[in-house]
Write a structure and sequence with these properties.
Length: about 55
């Protein structure tokens, strides 16, 4: 279960990055900032999961 959740977090982070790169020309600054915040939150959750598991 732990590894499935971790893989999903990483997968969603990659999707967000690809979306930001693909749509950067048409996105406002506000949307870009929200995208970066979303990536940071996903990676922070993944980091805490790794720390809790002791990996």
């Amino acid at each position: 279960m732990f590894y499935i959740a971790l893989i999903l977090l990483i997968f969603f982070s990659i999707i967000i990055v690809l979306y930001l790169v693909g749509k950067r020309a048409t996105m406002s600054w506000w949307e870009k900032i929200l995208g970066v915040i979303a990536i940071a939150i996903w990676l922070m959750i993944a980091w805490f999961m790794l720390q809790e598991k002791g990996i």
